[in-house]
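Lab notebook, bench 4. The sequencing result for the construct came back, and we need a structural model before the next group meeting so we can plan mutations. Quick request posted to the team channel:

Model the 3D structure of this chain.
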Amino acid sequence: MKRRLVVLSCAVVACAVVTISARQAPATSFDERVKRIESHLVPGTVIKGQPTPAMTIAERMRFYNTPGVSVAVINGGAIEWWRGYGVTEAGGIQPITPHTRFQAASISKPVAAMAALRLVQDGRLALDEDVNAKLTSWKVPDNEFTKDGKVTLRRLLSHSAGLTVHGFPGYAAGAPVPTLLQVLDGAKPANTAPIRVDVVPGTLWRYSGGGYAIVQQLLLDVTHRPFAQTMHELVLQPLGMIDSTYEQPLPESLRAQAASAHGTAGKVIGGRYHTYPELAAAGLWTTPEDLARFAIGVQQAAAGKSSVLSQATTREMLTVQKGAYGLGLSLAGGGRAARFGHGGSNAGFQCQMTAYVETGQGAVVMTNSDRGGMLAQEVLRAIAVEYGWPEYPGPKEKTIVSVDPAVYAQYAGRYEIQPGNVIVTVRVTGGRLMVSSSDDPEPEELLPESATKFFLLVSQLDLEFVKGADGAVSHIVINGSTKARRLGR
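Done. Here's the predicted structure in token form:
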């Protein structure tokens, strides 16, 4: 329940939040600051009028079945400290170290975007040119949608090119791995659909990992070098990201430093982790300190102090194009509170990066678990409190109302989420409304905000039961967007 519904809904969550404010107690040492953060993680949802429980990182790691967590904090425009928690693999003894590499998943995108922008800056690419003018090994197929708008690098980097394929599941150990051209055309052994334009480019924001596969091909065709080599030369080496690589599969010489991926139950994924040939979209292996160096690189470039990107080019990167997205980065806030970042979700890895443009603050949290995403957010909120980050969103505040338990009986039943064929089961147990799913059978209580609207305190989701013309419940709406239709009555 927790993982699958979050995956389906996280892009559309919109809710009132409590703005985080700094603690009053002054920090006298880094160690004291770290200890306060470790013992005061901030949940995603709090109940109005009830005290917020003190949560430690060790407790939350156990709760989220997350064996390893790695954290780097930026302050004053530099990495102030790093801490590792737990182990690289459940049941093992190898600790998380500063050099333990995690899959950055979609945080691969902004790093790849920086390389593409460097090529724009050098005159080898253009932001607003039809990418087919530079693509030589493959072309974006023209159709009725491309008549009124072309696929450009600006639109690819900002998820506004009208392209299909949201994300990539990766390839398990031992499974055939497709070439990039096979991924682009959805040809076997690719496990995703062809990447095609199905909306007029430039008309809307829609997240597309497929668009970054085209960016990868574009860089290959322009540089005539392996993508991992291009990324090393243009971004990783200049920024001092010494523990990072886009090589997939991960070379044998680096595997001992790699964290293993874990599913929702905390068990190691077969073969330790998946392979992602979609390098620009999901292929970066890295550490929180290296991603912090990347974030600092963006901060420095925005101030005109970078050898990688000019201030003018960085302004383009940090300017909203569509939705709340710039060129490779999600954006929020304004003025002193302006911040950029990205999340990442590969099989068995969940990560978060956020940083402020002007204040020199930020942090990166990387985990080796499918349930580590919410843990990463709890850690970030605790860091924001300790360091007084400006206007950083805190937890959602909810009010529980009294509902006649007799009402719950009409909600009990099985519901199906499409796509994905996930079955959600709602039951009444001991006068409480409980929910579970085929992806996560552990039941969780639905807490009422009204007679039809409920929320999950742990999974941090909102659910609304919707009735049809006959007065019977027809479906559930999850976080205002995802629908789960009722199976029978």
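The two ends are 21 Å apart (CA to CA).
Will bring this to the meeting.
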